Amino acid sequence: MSSIAVPGALAPRRAWLTDLPVLLVAVAWGASYLAAKDITTARTVIAVLVLRFALVLPVLAVMARRSLRALTAAQWRGAGLLGLILSGIFLLETYGVVHTSATNAGLIISLTMILTPLAEAAVTRTRPARAFLGAATLCVLGVVLLTQQGGFTRPALGDLLMLLAALARTVHVLVMSRAQALRGADALPVTTVQLGAALAVFAVLSAGADTTPWGAAGEFGAREWAGLLFLSAFCTLFAFFVQMWAVRRTSPSRVSLLLGTEPLWAAGAGILIGGERLGAAGLLGGALVLVGTAWGRRAAG
């Protein structure tokens, strides 16, 4: 995202009006794991991803039609590479949530907030602060408890896939922050190219999948269409535009802090709406993950 001048202290009323849409994005993202789990099966993952991106990409393409022409060849390649990574993230997340609980998915993916600073420290060969290492340790312990709440056994496939998704998100952030060609590029066309590249990957994969996008769409009822529109309209399109709007009116740190509440909403949706149960060990593990990520964000800042 291009550098944006951040205004000074906001009046309380204006700050609240800016914070609320960002918080709604965090709520939508938290609920997205349960929504994806509700409308997706192992055989329809790719079909659902094609439909989800196909619904939102034309809107972005129309909005970005002029700024897309301003991208250089290097920026197109950089955004395309990010789109390939993004496709891997969505595949891992969606297959992951099919094979684990929505609560586990939302809590495990929050490890990105810990993994990213650790990876950045490794790349720049700097030593993380002791407080941050303590927070990372707390998160690891939390994930162990979260995935072993039924006794110490092999973690579920979905838990491992969500952990890989958190690693993939970390790679995405690092590539985005270190890609020289993308510095100064407007967020709208870069995001449009990313989603277009990811959609192309899903479209190619769907050719050999068990269920085609059109076949899946034909089997959808009102509930499934509502879930798909929620994922496309709120969790993708609305979320992107709110982030662009909010970061121009408040600080990136404030936006990041509000979006960091996503795992809380994921756990809430899974337990209160999805009827999921964590058990004593799972509740303790989830609490450790939340405390560790919050502590790690402060220590890394």
Automatic annotation (TrEMBL):
<feature type="transmembrane region" description="Helical">
    <location>
        <begin position="76"/>
        <end position="95"/>
    </location>
</feature>
<feature type="transmembrane region" description="Helical">
    <location>
        <begin position="42"/>
        <end position="64"/>
    </location>
</feature>
<feature type="domain" description="EamA">
    <location>
        <begin position="20"/>
        <end position="147"/>
    </location>
</feature>
<keyword id="KW-1133">Transmembrane helix</keyword>
<feature type="transmembrane region" description="Helical">
    <location>
        <begin position="131"/>
        <end position="150"/>
    </location>
</feature>
<feature type="domain" description="EamA">
    <location>
        <begin position="157"/>
        <end position="294"/>
    </location>
</feature>
<keyword id="KW-0812">Transmembrane</keyword>
<feature type="transmembrane region" description="Helical">
    <location>
        <begin position="16"/>
        <end position="36"/>
    </location>
</feature>
<feature type="transmembrane region" description="Helical">
    <location>
        <begin position="279"/>
        <end position="296"/>
    </location>
</feature>
<feature type="transmembrane region" description="Helical">
    <location>
        <begin position="225"/>
        <end position="243"/>
    </location>
</feature>
<feature type="transmembrane region" description="Helical">
    <location>
        <begin position="101"/>
        <end position="119"/>
    </location>
</feature>
<dbReference type="InterPro" id="IPR051258">
    <property type="entry name" value="Diverse_Substrate_Transporter"/>
</dbReference>
<dbReference type="InterPro" id="IPR037185">
    <property type="entry name" value="EmrE-like"/>
</dbReference>
<protein>
    <submittedName>
        <fullName>DMT family transporter</fullName>
    </submittedName>
</protein>
<dbReference type="InterPro" id="IPR000620">
    <property type="entry name" value="EamA_dom"/>
</dbReference>
<keyword id="KW-1003">Cell membrane</keyword>
<keyword id="KW-0472">Membrane</keyword>
<dbReference type="Pfam" id="PF00892">
    <property type="entry name" value="EamA"/>
</dbReference>
<comment type="similarity">
    <text>Belongs to the EamA transporter family.</text>
</comment>
